[in-house]
Amino acid sequence: MKRILLFILPILIIVTAAFVVFGTLQVRSEEQKLMDELKRKAKAVAEGIDLSAKYILLHNDLRGAKALVEKFQARERLQGCVLYDNEGQIFAITSRFADWREKEKPYIRDILAEKRPRGELEKFKEYSVYTYAVPILDDEDNVLGIAEVIYDTSFVFATLTELWERINVTLIILVFCILIIAFFIQRQIFTLPVQRLTEWFTHFQKGETDELPSIRGKDELGKLASEVEQVALNLRVARRAISDEASARIRKEDIWTEARLRDLIRAKLGDNALFVVSNREPYMHVTVEPAGKPKCIRPASGVVTAINPILYACGGVWVAHGSGDADRQFTNSKNKLGVPPEDNRYILKRVWLDKEEEAGYYYGFANEGLWPLCHITHTRPAFREADWQMYKKVNQKFADSVLEELPKKSPLIFIQDYHFTLLGKMIKEKRPDAAIALFWHIPWPNHEVFSICPYQQEILDGMLACDIIGFHVPYHCNNFLETANRLLECRIDTEKSSIIRSGKETFIRSFPISIDTHFSDKASAESQDYINTIRGEYALNDKIIALGVERIDYTKGIIERVLAIDRFLEKYPQYRNKFVFIHLAAPSRTHIKRYHDLVSEIDELVERINWKHFDGAWKPIIYLKRHFSADEIKPFYALADLCIVSSLHDGMNLVAKEYISARKDSSGALVLSRFTGAARELTDAVQINPYAIEDFADKIKFAIEMPPDEKQRRMRNMRDIVRENNIYRWAASIITELTALTKV
Ligand code: ADQ
Question: pTM score, two decimals?
Fold first, then answer.
């Protein structure tokens, strides 16, 4: 529309200006014509009564005078006639025009003096009149009086107004015609070809190369389209070659690397992109106060830590909630941007949610309902109908956003977590050909626990529309199979570990998630400076340093850990002044009361324990409550003699793996809750029950005092496991299974 306006605005301005000039000239000439005619008429009438007036004035014949002036009573535009004596006093006046007496008439005196007729435009009451006055002279040329005729001129203005109206209506019709013609022309020569070109690009984008409509025309756009077709052809041929090379390389390599995963995806998916959906976005633009400048951060989230390296390596599209307050500034008209911002490797598509949607779907149903339901931490789940309705609405919103992007042939979609239990079904309804995997990053409870959820049927049905559902550990797979068996009408194939419901088979698999093993690559100079500052500030040089890193969440066992540290220092006072626990804690979900209360509870507890053991210079807990970038966290892992992960329940826990990966010299010890998924793999960690505070305190001592050789042995074993079962292997297993099962 803006373009059409730009195109026709100059034309409209010129046409309007021409009409105004032309109209003004025409109106002026018409006015002149009408006034001339009026004047002529007035003069003729005034001169016509000259003789009668002379006779009347000579004989002072009042009756004759009255008869003369009343003759004009019935005439339409002629308002009246007046006879003046030689003093300029009214002698007789048409009765309907009697008010004329009141009017000041300076010109009468002039006519008596000059003895010449005179025409004047005069204002009278609220209208204007034209008067023509002739002096009446006797035979000796003496003035006997004046005869005056008065015409109403309002018809002149009425005629002119009517003329202006006609000109305006003509102008409006003309403008309207110009608009229609311009719109039509611009649609034909611009919009339609561009629309065809856009459609062509959309098909090309989605990989629907076989069905591309031909738009080879002879005009400029046609030439552009044919150039694009050439580029597309080259790209297709190159992709095919890369895909074949990739398959050859995968067969040779051993450890899963970024490059090998890239090869696998190219070999398996060919032209197709991988689509990932999660609630949390991998890059978030937030405003940093007080400067008010936007900054890009990586949120503290295990899902982001795990999935980001995969898309970084292989490209694709990641659809997530745009939750940063400055996010909109950095997206294009299709809500997309290339990420990482400094080195675009894949596309992030942001979905916008309003406050109500976020409150109901994210804070409400997902985090006050499903999260506590799946974690056995004795926090009561809250299921509210309004939250559930919002959860469904937001799942549909994400489904629509994903569907917009999908290529025509066999798209591969990888859904993350408990925020999207219904998404798989919603996508399959429109695209049954899509291969969909859902990965459940948190634990799956036993069927009795799950059966308290009022929406169990819809949730299970939504999930079972997917082709594969992945959990971290076999225990959660078994819980899920048992849940489906007990709560749904379905058939369980234990040999294939699948669930068949209404003819649809869904495979249930365990894929223990991990991290990018390059995680530990050198930290930035800034981070090193930061750690030196911490060292100096807290006099850490001769201290045994323990570390905790997590979002502030009641499932992470933060309270239990602080209590265990307190008990450890009570029980083993030899470690006072020698032991420091650094806690990097990112506030999370603070709009939920349980999380809000937890933050204050931890603040108070840390303060109390620090106060209890404080000796004037040393305090046992350094509590750094904020979000840290991955670069900032790395030097803390390198610094820590032991890392304590005390989750009360955790799907996997990536902090444990990050710590191991960062210990390049195989030093250090990991104290790990046995209620984490990671505890199944990392059997060389010092395992604890975070609820058993006494034992927990002893295990901290045990980890500190473990002989260096033993520490090295355990750490080496764990490093081998993490290196081998890295995030690329995890992604490769899921993609291989998915492509094999669904024959993408
Ligand atoms: P999370 O509950 O988010 O993940 P986790 O696996 O430990 O937990 O991952 C946390 C990530 O956030 C780590 O990469 C860590 O470095 C980062 N992080 C922690 N504290 C931070 C801070 N203060 N500042 C910045 N970053 C911080 C969920 C499940 C887990 C599962 C993962 C992956 O709850 O069980 O392991 O998904 O599947």
Answer: 0.73
